[in-house]
Amino acid sequence: MFKITNDQMPKLLKAIAETKDLFLPINNNGVTNFGFYKEDCTPDLDTLRTVKSAKDAFFPQSEGLYAVTTEDGKFTISEEEYCNKDFVVFGVRPCDVRSFVVLDKVFLSDPVDTYYAARREHGIVVSLACHQPDESCFCATFDIDAAEPEADVAMWNIEGGYAWEAKTEKGQALTESIKALLEEADVAKEVETEKNCIRTILSVLPNSKLDVSAFGAGKTDDLFNSPMWTELSNACLGCGTCTFSCPTCQCYDIKDFNTGHGVSRYRCWDSCMYHDFTLCAHGTNRQTQMQRFRQRFMHKLVYFPDREGMFSCVGCGRCVDKCPQSLNIVKVIKRMGGNSNV
Amino acid sequence: MCDCGNENNNVLLPQIGVITDIRRETPDVKTFRVVGRDGKKLFEHMPGQCAMVCIPGVSEAMFSITSSPTNKEYQEFSIKQCGSLTNVLHNLQVGDEVLVRGPYGNNFPVDTVLKGKDLLFIAGGIGLAPLRSVINYCIDKRDEYGTIDIVYGARSADDLVRLDEIKDVWMNVPGVNVHLTIDREQEGWDGHVGFVPNYVKELDLNVDKVALLCGPPIMIKFVLQGLKELGYTDEQVYTTLELRMKCGIGKCGRCNVGNKFVCKDGPVFRYDEIAATTGEF
Amino acid sequence: MQAELIARAKALLADGTVARVLGWRKGDTDFNAEPAVFETAESLDEFVYDGFCGANLSKYMIKNSKLEGKTLVFLKPCDTYSFNQLIKENRINRDNTYIIAVGCYGKLDINKIKAAGNKAILSVAEEGATLKIHTAYGDAEMAREEAVLDRCKVCKGGKHVVYDELASFVDEEKPAAEGRFDEVKKLEAMKPEERFAFWQGELSRCIRCNACRNVCPACSCIKCIFDNNNYDAAQKVNTSSFEEQMFHIIRAWHVAGRCTDCGECSRVCPENIPLHLLNRKFISDINEFYGEFQAGEDTTSRAPLTNFTTDDVEPSIVKERG
User: Fold this and answer.
1) Residue B266 has what DSSP assignment?
2) How many domains does chain C have?
3) Is residue A68 in a domain?
4) What would the DSSP string read from start to end of B148-160?
């Protein structure tokens, strides 16, 4: 295990950015989001949760697919270039690390999404354990350990800096490349203390481990027609805050942008909460906000488990913090499934 | 730069298709024949499968392939003019290009469940498009299937798609019975008048069949009721669905209902697979 | 005050005056109450009214006032302006509404409490001018006024401009706060390039979730122009940051003269973009050019931007002001 001191951290980031694109939490006027490192940016490894998740690293909110130009009525298609260079996603929390597993189930299942696959291949994930979890954290519900990041490199906050441990070959290679800035140190004990602190706090948080036994594979018939959906969704504005801040929401739209010399076909995140998500020429099959609201939570808590054997919520708590009207998946789980913190 | 070659195996990248024939079927339905630039079929497909057809700058949408896989030369799409993309498609000329990717989705189980069975096809309006592929497939392999009954209805006689083929080909195949109906009386029409669901009940065909249906949601709803009354079980009924789709490969989430993705797990479903969440289809 | 409101709601439900009650339901924490409709006396036991009930309920009345029977709605002073404006725009059926005016001492912003360094908050209690905050890491206190929403710092005052009855704890005489346009003046004092950089920095964070639009009482179009797919700037995302700015500026233009400055846009923005400043700049300009005007103050007057008088400023004002 290695140690990197607080003083050395800016140098470490700079060193990584010299050879690779570096995607990390950056503070912009008091608000922290993942973004690409620039010399004058303000990295922020203290904020527990970025507003948007780390999902943009592999599945950006908007990305080009291909361009089409037309000459004499004949099309020419040029495919957008794939990610072909290693990059580092830095400071990813364990919940967001798990979200990549969820996204993998979607994008890497047959047929593979080649744009996503290229990014995954080249992405190196450096995770940071959750020093001081928050009340809206409920990752343990989905068996995620906020104290034990499962990434290429794991980091923990310790006195005066961070502990650094490579977990995979990719992680080892990254470690080698910046070894000069790392200090070989026996910090195992300090890391153990940090892990215990994290787990102790989690154990007193009211929602940290919710009872989700009412959800999961095969529960469609029990839940689909529940009268609770109307009550739960009544105040829903139909905005995209929950879906766009969510690390696992992966629905997208494919759209055209007229570049003036042709068409750029791109995809962008879409939200099942939007009223026109399923609208087509013959109308829409989900006509009420209740239906759209139900779709989002049934998808995460029942349909996805049906298909993939795992929940597609990682308990990051972003929707809990950000819903304009305080509707969220925790309320859904509690009101439909029971109140206990197990 | 790539022309049709797709080295990365990118499933979202379309092929360039050339329209070689356009036939007006009804006042608002045209059938488009499409091949690659090399004049050959774009891909092989199975009856019931779909493909995404795109006009850059307009939109892209999923259409069922109406030609039978037994046709070795081209693919056909019968497209009703009803939205922004189909408006533009209807203005295309022979020789124009479109982008096509596919085939997508599953197919009617022509080589398994349907083999040797008596088949009952029930279609309304443009709903014949996906079934036509299966019907022609079964007709081309006539001895592999039992009796074929086709109940087909539309708003008027003018809205019956492929009437020429129905009359000239299907009606002359041994063991194939075609039952046509239109919604309202019309001059020059001496056939049956009435809605499809009622006609199915009136025909009182024996129940030992597999039913394959496609049509507007309201027709599906009442046909399902009618079939149930006649004694059909959910397992005996196959339908093909359509929802808004963007990716065609079960990832964009748009056509997700219940634990199914219409584009990937469908469009063909045995009715019992979707019964629980039918409110959203 | 909460008990009083529950009692009145139960009485109005019981005597058939109203068919439903639009208020706030207790959350699973002290600070996440949600707007909710109550149809039975029992369900009202979950009703809550406290410092965290910031949501402006007036827009929900578009839907609820079209239902069978009257809807009881609780409105804070600033919410009543939005309500009136919606009446003016024929979006709400006033006859189908029963309004109880509730007092407000400034609504709390949990983000401010968190920004003060409080993590893993287990409870927040209001004790007069002090908030007692209990967290998993220890207890803390902070002054209530430091935790109120930005919009409440420039409160329009305690007056309700429309209601059927007043709750006992209202203070109709509470004066408006000073300095409502201070932030606008700061922006106006900037050089154009500074101002552009400020907005670019703020708006670059926009994730196009449309929360600002969907919560806005002035955004009541049945179909928004940004929901038109035949249009390159249609919702969801932008191909260039220029469009991000256009979304908010077009929206600000569209609600100009109708925006009551309720501040919901900034309250709900997940990226803390001070969207209300765009609208407030319009309000400030309208005041300057057409005389003091407060949208939603009444339901009948003609709004300056939809009225024509020979005294109206000429378009050339743009050039004169630079």
Assistant:
1) -
2) 3
3) no
4) EEEEEEESSGGG-
> Cα separations (Å) of C100 from A85, A197, B261?
62, 48, 48
Are A39 and A162 in the same domain?
Answer: yes
Tell me the HSE value of B262 on the side-chain side, using a 13 A CA sphere.
24
Is the pLDDT reported for residue C314 higher than 90? no
Angle B216-B219-B224 (CA atoms, 0-180°, nearest 5)?
125
Cβ of A282 and B82 within 8 Å?
Answer: yes
Largest CA distance in chain B: 59
Residues A232 and A117 in one domain: no
Domain boundaries, chain B: 15-104, 119-240
Rg of chain B taking only CA atoms, in angstroms: 18
Q: Strands, DSSP E only, in chain C?
A: 20-25, 34-38, 71-75, 97-101, 121-127, 130-135, 138-143, 165-166
- Rounded to two decimals, the ipTM of the complex is 0.93
Q: What is the pLDDT of residue A294?
A: 95
Same domain membership, residue A230 and residue A193: no
Q: Does A268 touch chain C (CB under 8 A)?
A: yes
Nearest Cα to A120, choosing from A151, A147, A145?
A: A151
Contacts C36 to A, Cβ<8 Å: 231, 234-235
H helix runs in A131-225, sequence order: 169-177, 188-204, 220-223
**Residues C97-137: tens digit of each pLDDT:** 999 999 999 999 999 999 999 999 999 999 999 999 999 99
Do C214 and A238 count as a contact with CB atoms less than 8 A apart? yes
Q: Does C230 touch chain B (CB under 8 A)?
A: yes
| Cα distance between residue A138 and residue A301, in whole Å | 14
A324 touches chain C (CB under 8 A): yes
Mutation test of the interface with chain B: which of A244, A282, A299, choosing the one with the most B Cβ atoms within 10 A?
Answer: A282
Is the CB of residue A288 less than 8 Å away from at least one CB of chain B? Answer: no
Per the confidence metrics, is the pTM higher than 0.80?
Answer: yes
Q: Note down the domain range covering A33.
A: 2-55+82-204
For B80, name the nearest residue in chain A, comparing CA atoms only. A281
Chains that touch A (3 or more CB pairs under 8 A): B, C
Architecture per CATH, B15-104: Beta Barrel (2.40)
- Neighbours of C, requiring at least 3 CB pairs below 8 Å, are A, B
3-state secondary structure C209-245: CCHHHHHCCCCCCCCCHHHCCCCCCCCCCCCCHHHHH
For residues C216-243, give the mean pLDDT.
73
The C-alpha atoms of residue A54 and residue A87 are separated, in whole angstroms, by 13
Asked if the structure places residue A77 within a domain, the reply is no
Q: Are residues C78 and C194 in the same domain?
A: no
Domain enclosing residue C159, as ranges? 1-107+150-178
Each residue's pLDDT, cut to its tens digit, for chain B (281 residues) gives 344 456 668 999 999 999 999 999 999 999 999 999 999 999 999 999 999 999 998 889 999 999 999 999 999 999 999 888 999 999 999 999 999 999 999 999 999 999 999 999 999 999 999 999 999 999 999 999 999 999 999 999 999 998 889 999 999 999 999 999 999 999 999 999 999 999 998 988 888 999 999 998 888 889 998 999 999 999 999 999 877 788 888 999 988 888 889 899 989 999 988 877 666 66
Q: Give yes or no: residues A155 and A7 share one domain.
A: yes
State residue A277's pLDDT score: 85
* Same domain for A254 and A194: no
**Matching residue, tokens 């488009």:** B32
Mean pLDDT of chain C: 92
A152 shares its domain with A225: no
C166 and C266 assigned to the same domain: no
Q: Which CATH number fits domain B119-240: 3.40.50.620, 3.30.360.10, 3.40.50.80, 3.55.50.30?
A: 3.40.50.80
Task: Flag if B246 and A253 touch (Cβ within 8 Å).
Answer: yes
pLDDT confidence tier of residue C240, bands split at 50, 70 and 90: low
Query: A-C interface: how many C-beta pairs under 8 angstroms?
Result: 132
